[in-house]
Amino acid sequence: MLDLLKTRFGYDAFLPHQEEIIAAVMAGQDCFVLLPTGGGKSLCYQLPALALDGLTLVVSPLIALMKDQVDGLRANGIPAGFINSTLTQSQIAQVQQRVRDGAIKLLYVAPERAITPDFQRFLDSIKVSLVAIDEAHCVSEWGHDFRPAYRELAGMRQVCPNAPVIALTATAPQMVREDILSQLGLRQPRRFVSGFNRPNLTYAVTPKKNSLPALVSLLERHSGESAIIYCLARQSTEDLAGALSRHGFQAEAYHAGMDADLRRAVQDRFIRDQTQIVVATIAFGMGIDKPDVRLVVHHDLPKSLEGYYQESGRAGRDGLPAECVLFYSYADKARQEYFVNQLEDTEEQQRAQQRLDQVIELCNLRTCRRKFILEYLGEEDVADDCAGCDVCRSPREEFDATEIAQKILSAVARTGQRFGAAHIVNVLLGSATKQVVKNGHDQLPVFGIAPGQPPENLRDLVKDVSAQGLLESTGGQYPTLSITPRGRTFLKNRETLTLARPVSDAAPAQTAATDSGFDPRLYQQLAQCRKQLADARNVPAYVIFGNRTLQDMARRAPRNRVEFARVHGFGQSKLHDLAQPFLAVINDYVAQHGTPQPTEIPAAPDRPTPSRGVNMAALETGRLVSAGASIEEVAEQRGIRPSTVLDHLDRLAQAGQSLQVEHLMPNPTRRQAIEKAFAATGDLRLTPAREILGEEYSYDELKLVRLALYHPTTNSDSQQQTRQPNLTSKPGKPRP
Ligand code: ADP
Ligand code: ZN
User: Fold this and answer.
1) Which of 275, 373, 602, 687 could form a disulfide with 269 if both were Cys (CB 3.0 to 4.6 A apart)?
2) How sure is the predictor about 210, in pLDDT bands with cuts at 50, 70 and 90?
3) Residues in contact with ligand 1 (CB, 6 Å cut-off)
């Protein structure tokens, strides 16, 4: 399989889970695969298709994508075809014949066609070795793209009873997952579920004041790259596309009100890089499989967090850095609430309000945005600091928040734990608002005990204190604050609290991440060559090569076949067909400029710089632990949570600080099992490793063992140096 991977696809190694999934498929087992976008799902059936003797049938919901998918496979010399309504009867008959002749190994069809008696008769006449059901969430009414025909796919089993079925999706809340398993009639399926994190995406929320200049400068940073801008209303897509065009960008509008032909044309120009920017309603999406979208902007609030994850997730499918930016204003919130209030069905209204509240919460967060999204999606034990969202990237300073936290908690207590944050802030500031006076709170000893500061500051502090687990908020339209048991302990034991706040006048965090280490001028010329080849073959540029391949080519500047074969994504077929024109470009370049000069290599975007998060607090934690203290002792002594202690250690270890952590390790048997699990997943993410280990192992144990694995060679324990050779080759893998 590894051979096929290299010769056909030009890749050197499997991505996480691919190998196991392929092994299961080859063993004839049904599989359920939930991997995030860009996780490499297609390969999980494409590779077996090459190795199995019969046909692999791929059920895919989007007719518009089939041609590109098939073109992409053929460019790698893989015999693929499709049958859909864009073909004539005689073309269909031709494809069927080629399947019978074994000249097509992978056949793409839409579910509606797959279930017709005609097509089933055809299947009956050939050997089907594997059925792949892509975008399997379409089977569920709970999902966002329900397609009734998916429901009938279970019937395929009668036609090809011996072919295993592999169902694949990138999004599936619990309810949808269960639907997929039951509705598709999978037989004792192996389940492969990995985390939702998209480490190559950065997230940022920007105030929507004066948004056009902000948008323009974002787009300038991504000039020449593909971007999607989402708006709520059809009219605003047209207005904004117009405004951007006047600023000299190639921008087009896209919405459901447009004529189907026009929409297809916009989509096509976007895929073929003739239009850089599409300003769209969320109608623009499912059909977009473009791997090199570098920027997704939400110019208006998304309707739900799941929607946001989906839409922003269209960025960076190729695994290279990409940016997701959300513009937020209070006016937008009010406008959306207005729409929600128009809904007639009260239950529906409540659900819509709840979804909107979650989006607002995301916008107002003072903690990691990625963590919030991932936890919403059901992921557990997400690191507190992702180093890849605007919150985590903004410079922060720590301060002693003990006194203000005490004041906030007292105000909550004295007002009877029946009021929300705004009211508490008024009491603390000493603002005698109508509410405050009516409740007699201007008579309380806590009235005005934190005067003379901007109310937003206090509001943020209340949020931070809640985030520390000292306060909790009831949900609903008028949430109220109450003190948690943890908060009571804090008061009773006179604990201290350290918080971090943004350094106020620092420059905003730069969110664009640029990969480099290759010569940008050579890259440009290679990209031009790719474009010419693509246009000549009438396929999108990415069918020729993805950007990663181009970058790797610019980095290595290969001069012969052997060197070309080393380039990421250069399989044999492409070596044969495509090496020549690129070689000509490289030769010309070298003749003119000499050997390519890589640009300076900045820290990789998904890899924290050593100073990240290694603040005084973390260092102090590290000092205590290295002196032999246990996690609990440090937590106790410093008045922080054990999870924070672990987080500190994690940051220090990642940053390469030397730590003495042997005394924290689980017993050798468990430790070894955990190390094996990390080695099996090929990286240091917790969720996949825990999937292997099962619930008997806690995330905390995994985190502890991981401390010694980040930089095995610098660790004091010499055993580590040899134990994990395959991990040392990937030190930069991001945390979940
Ligand atoms: P998904 O369907 O899960 O969103 P794709 O199948 O489109 O993901 O794969 C995402 C990208 O990763 C594609 O460009 C694909 O060619 C690439 N890819 C897949 N497997 C590997 C691998 N083993 N090594 C490197 N790149 C891979
Ligand atoms: Zn973050």
Assistant:
1) 275
2) confident
3) 11, 14-15, 18, 35, 37-43, 170, 291, 317-319, 546
Per-residue pLDDT, averaged over 578-604, amounts to: 78
Give, in degrees to the nearest 5, the angle at Cα 694 between 12 and 676.
45
Residue range 255-281: average pLDDT? 91
Cα–Cα distance between 180 and 191 in angstroms, integer? 11
CA Rg value for the chain: 28
CA 382 – ligand 2 centroid, Å: 10
Hey, which residues does 34 pair with through a beta bridge?
169, 193
Note the helical H segments in 538-638.
Answer: 541-544, 547-556, 561-566, 572-593, 616-626, 631-638
Cα 372 to averaged position of ligand 2 atoms, centre (Å): 9
> What contacts 24+ positions apart, CB below 8 Å, involve 48-51?
48/22, 48/129, 48/130, 49/78, 49/105, 49/106, 49/129, 49/130, 50/4, 50/8, 50/78, 50/105, 51/1, 51/4, 51/26
Q: Using CA positions, which residue lies closest to atom 23 of ligand 1?
A: 14
Looking at the DSSP bridge assignments, the partners of residue 251 are 277
Q: Which residue has the tokens 């030009």?
A: 10
Residue 426 identity (one-letter amino acid): N
Quickly state the pLDDT bin for 249 (edges 50, 70, 90): very high
Instruction: Note residues around ion ligand 2 (Cβ under 5 angstroms).
Output: 368, 370, 386, 389, 392
Q: What pLDDT does residue 648 have?
A: 82
If you measure from the C-alpha of residue 388 to the centroid of ligand 2, how many angstroms do you get, rounded to a whole number? 5
Helix or strand run (H / E) with residue 525: helix 520-537
Cβ-contact 280, 229 below 8 angstroms: yes
Q: Could you tell which of 9, 45, 292 is best to mutate to test the pocket of ligand 1, judged by most ligand atoms within 8 Å of the CB?
A: 9
Give the pair of three-digit tokens for residue 573. Answer: 């077929």
| Tens-place pLDDT, residues 458-507 | 888 898 898 888 998 886 667 899 999 999 999 998 888 888 776 654 34
621-647 core/surface letters (b: 16 or more CB in 10 A; e: else) = bbebbbeebebeebbeebbbeebbbbb
CA dihedral over 97, 100, 104, 109, signed as positive or negative: positive
Check residue 624 and give its pLDDT: 85
Residue 729, pLDDT > 60, answer no
CA distance 528 to 530: 5
Identify the three-state secondary structure at position 205: strand
**Terminal CA-to-CA distance of the chain, rounded, Å?**
28
Q: Which residues pair with 326 in a beta bridge?
A: 205, 298
CA distances from 59 to 26, 150, 220, 410 (A): 19, 9, 39, 60
- Helix (H) or strand (E) holding 671, with range, is helix 668-681
Residue 97 and residue 92: Cα distance in Å, rounded?
Answer: 9
**DSSP reduced 3-state for 675:** helix
Q: What is the model's pLDDT at position 602?
A: 38
Contact 390, 511 (CB under 8 A): yes
The residue ranges of DSSP E strands in 183-271, in sequence order, are 190-193, 201-207, 226-230, 251-254
